[in-house]
Amino acid sequence: MTSRHDIFAELGLSPLWLDRSRLERQQTVAAPAQDLESNAKGKPVESDIGVPDDNSPQGGGAKAPGVSVVQPVEKMDWPQLRQAVAECTACVLYKKRRQAVLGVGDEQADWLIIGEGPGAEEDARGEPFVGQAGKLLDNMLSAIGLARGSNVYIANVVKCRPPGNRTPSLEEAEACAAYLDRQIDLIQPRLIVALGKVAARRMLGRDATLASLRKTLHDYRGIPLVVTYHPAYLLRNLPDKAKAWEDLCFAVDSMSGLAGAQDAQQ
Ligand code: SF4
């Protein structure tokens, strides 16, 4: 028999989330134990968290008590997205996290910076790029006249810390992809800067060397994107800081070009 999850997946309404407290209440009545097991294995689950009732002014219909309502990620607003990420169990990374780290900054920024995933310090503090690499990133932003939180939003490919700071797997990046895409849709940045190979691979969909991707204006779903080194890599490879500076200058020039093109159209 086709399950609800299969139907929702078929309709493109995935990943989906489940209010865990409700699930647990339902389980005590009827649900088989293996349902929770399957959620922990990263299968789509469903949620009624923060989702308007079907008859609410936002659209929808009255929600019967105990009946969860599906909300696709691509329709979530910021509070719903925050809650969904905080409670997500779609990949194994949820098991070792202290908290999920959605991102930080200006939610209407022109600049979107995308890194790899939270480290131990980020996991503890709930903010991306707060350790040594974060300080370097702040300095890099400052060098081009930007500051964290002001016309800049910082996010990661995966929202939960990979244990031991390992590289997130392709499957983990894929499981988390809808969240990052929704962030991009909500922010609508004018330029994306992908930091490091993992972010470049996620955004460009190919496994090329970072060197081969630099100094090119790429495109992610219609948004110009540039690639440079991850600050954590730069901390270990100081000579490459000069290349990162070149990349940032390229990004600034690209942004200026975009602004010029927009002015010319008006
Ligand atoms: S990394 Fe992303 S997909 Fe995996 S559990 Fe965390 S929020 Fe969910």
Describe the structure.
The chain is an alpha/beta fold and 266 residues long. The chain has two domains: 76 residues, no CATH class; 165 residues, Uracil-DNA glycosylase-like domain (Uracil-DNA Glycosylase, subunit E, 3-Layer(aba) Sandwich). The protein contains eleven helices and six strands. It has a six-stranded mixed sheet with strand order 1-3-2-4-6-5, with helices on both faces. Strand 5 and strand 6 form a beta hairpin. The N and C termini lie far apart (56 Å). The N terminus is likely disordered. It binds iron/sulfur cluster (SF4). The site of iron/sulfur cluster has 14 residues, from helix 7.
Spans where pLDDT lies below 50 across 5 or more residues: 1-69
- Classify the fold: give the CATH topology of the largest domain: Uracil-DNA Glycosylase, subunit E
The structural domain count equals 2
Distance linking N and C termini: 56 Å
List the helices and strands and how they pair.
Layout: H1 4-10, H2 20-29, H3 34-40, H4 78-86, E1 103-105, E2 111-115, H5 120-125, H6 132-143, E3 152-156, H7 170-187, E4 191-195, H8 196-204, H9 210-213, E5 218-220, E6 223-228, H10 231-236, H11 241-265
Parallel strand pairs: 2-3, 2-4, 4-6
Antiparallel strand pairs: 1-3, 5-6
Short note summarizing the structure:
With 266 residues, this protein is an alpha/beta fold.
Keywords:
single chain; 266 residues; alpha/beta; Uracil-DNA Glycosylase, subunit E; 2 domains; 6-stranded mixed sheet; 42% helix; 10% strand; globular; disordered N terminus; binds iron/sulfur cluster
